[in-house]
Amino acid sequence: MAASCGGGFDYCAPYEYPESYAAFSILVAASAAINGRLLINAGYKPETCPNLFVLLYGPTGARKSEALMDATIDMLAGCEATHHVPILPMNSTPEALRNRLVKDSRCDPHVDELECDAAGHTGKARGVLISEEFTMLVGGADYQKHAADFLGKLWETPRPYETFATIAHGEQVIRNRYVVLGCCTTPDKFANIDFATLEGNLMRRLLVVSELGEAKESPRPRRNSVLLNALRDEFGRRLGTDAFGSVCMALSEGAARLNDEWYVNDLRRLRHEVAGAKAARFVNSLQVHAFKLGAVLHVLEGGDAEEMSEESLRMGFALVEALLPGILEVYNSLAPTPLGKLKARIVRAIAAAGAGGIEEGKVDTEIGAEGGIDHEAVTRARRQLMAEHRVKRNKEGRMVIAG
User: Fold this and answer.
1) What's the rounded mean pLDDT across residues 309-324?
2) Nearest-angstrom CA–CA distance, 173 and 239
3) How many Å apart are CA 103 and CA 156, to the nearest integer?
4) pTM higher than the cut 0.85
5) Count of CA atoms in the C-beta half-sphere (13 A) of 269
């Protein structure tokens, strides 16, 4: 992406980090600065908001975190016109993040969240979530599926509210959410995640920016004046609170025609070119990703917030297609982890027992003996499956498949 701000400089002037990291980090910051003020393609499907979920993927030392922090903490938070955008806690459990968003979506803390609508108190759950290590964001094995499902829900906009029921907090409501995600990971850390956790809704929502080459090095790294100074001013003018209000962004006539042509021709071609269920899920989300990217680029380039141009949408489609080869490569690296294999073995054993079920001890003993696995490890994996509601106890206390 080498678009100009009109001031004689590019978004992707030479940095210590790869240009793709710089570009998509800036898009994360711009997406956050929009702060829920745009509804794209209102009244039609897909109707969405431009909240991006971006994962910078590459080796240790590639300066992924540096790119992300320059564009968000240093520029977004440091820009007077956009400093109103909340920076969500960078280190938290999924429960703590949910509680924060529940609290933010209540304008009056003295009114119970279930009474908010009736009382007219409708707050907003907004902000940018930054994580320097994606695997820490989704947590350990006990948290992964729960965290991935929760993050996947946050990507779905617009929705007036989402409800959750927990033992500790009862029923909770998150209203008017607009959460942007910028995170990083290395291939070795990413490979340790149970692939079953990611192959569902969260993975297809992530725009994975993959750079697997050698990290750039410099004996005297220089703080980049383009990103932190010149771009910050233009960034504020085009995305600040005074730039535009809450509006519906329609597709221009040319953009609508381009969308129809892309959906009929290019999407069909891409579906035939990719292989595997995980890749197919992402391809089916390409249109929404293109709408989000096109909208962010459109206002970042100073376009009319009420109408997306054909050029902006074309760039949105071009960006998602440019990312696609790297994303498919990352998908192919998601081989089952030892934990994933163990869980699959347990599920198969319980399913083979039929409706009558099988004793817990027998599952743990037989699976452990069959694979030479420690009995306690099997027990922990089985309990995780129960926490994920994939298996359960029947009335007789025997293990059966949930559902």
Assistant:
1) 94
2) 29
3) 19
4) no
5) 7
Crossing angle (nearest 10°) for helices 310-332 and 286-300: 130
pLDDT digits (tens, 9 = 90+) for 116-171: 555 555 678 888 999 988 888 876 655 666 677 778 878 877 776 677 776 666 77
Tokens of 252: 């221009």
| Residue in the block written with tokens 């929404």 | 288
Residue range(s) in the chain whose domain bears CATH number 3.40.50: 19-332
Name 324's Cβ contacts closer than 8 Å, sequence gap at least 6.
Answer: 270, 274, 282, 283, 286
Question: Which option is the CATH number for 338-401: 1.10.10, 3.30.300, 2.70.98, 1.20.1250?
Answer: 1.10.10
In the chain, residues under CATH classification 1.10.10 are 338-401
Q: What angle do CA 324, 326, 331 make, to 5 degrees?
A: 90
Quick check: 258 and 315 in contact, CB under 8 A?
A: no
Q: What is the tens place of the pLDDT at every residue in 228-285? A: 555 777 788 888 888 899 999 999 999 999 999 999 999 888 888 876 666 777 888 9
CB-CB contact of 146 with 95 (8 Å): no
Task: Assign a CATH topology to domain 19-332.
Answer: Rossmann fold (3.40.50)
Among 327, 317, 210, 314, which residue's Cα sits nearest to residue 274? 327
One-letter amino acid identity for 112? Answer: D
3-class DSSP assignment, residue 204: helix
Please give the residue that has the higher pLDDT: either 361 or 371.
Answer: 361
Contacts for 276 with CB less than 8 Å, ≥ 6 apart:
331, 332
Which sign, positive or negative, has the C-alpha torsion 307, 311, 312, 314?
positive
